[in-house]
Each structure stands twice: as C-alpha cells, then as structure tokens.
Design goal:
- By secondary structure, this protein is mainly alpha-helical.
- The chain has 2 domains: 1-52; 55-92.
- Helix content is 76%, strand content 0%.
- α1 packs across α3 (39-49).
Length: 92
C-alpha cells in the first residue's frame, strides 16, 4: 500500500512540533523520531518550509502553480514566434 504524502500544512505543523520538542531539551534526532520521519526528510522540509506559516504555505503553492502555467505560456509563444519566423523566411 503506497504511503500518503503529507500536505504542506502538515509539514509545517510537524516542523513546529520539532521546534517545540527541541526547546524542551530533546535532541533533534529524538524530536525527529517523535514525528516519525528521518533526519534527511526533516532537514529537506526545514530547508523548503523553514520559517513559513500555514497561510504562507498555501500562497507559496499557488504561486508555484501560477509560475508553471506562465512558463508554459511563454514557451508556447516562443515556439509560435519561431514557426512564424521560419515561415516568413520561406522555409516551409
């Protein structure tokens, strides 16, 4: 059975939980074990979602999807421009 990936909000909540546990005197390794992930995953999450709050994570994901959509639009327009330039030169 495949594992479910945690949502960005769940990741931020787990990162905050690790912060609380480390402030209570536990080591990072113990705190990471408490949230049931590996240290590698914890550091990867911390790098990506480090100081974000829940609403900021939602906005980040919205901006990432909008950015991907705009990149596709620009690449389509660049391709159209190249095709029109070839047609204008007479190279069909």
């Amino acid at each position: 059975m495949p594992r479910k990936r945690p949502t960005a909000e769940e990741i931020v909540a787990k990162l905050r939980q690790v912060d609380v546990l480390t402030s209570q005197g536990k080591t990072v390794a113990e705190a990471v074990r408490a949230i049931a992930v590996t240290e590698v995953i914890y550091y990867r999450w911390r790098k990506e979602y480090g100081g974000l709050k829940g609403d900021q994570v939602k906005r980040l994901k919205e901006l990432e999807t909008e950015n991907a959509r705009l990149r596709r639009a620009v690449s389509d327009l660049a391709l159209d421009k190249m095709v029109l330039a070839e047609a204008a030169r007479g190279n069909f």
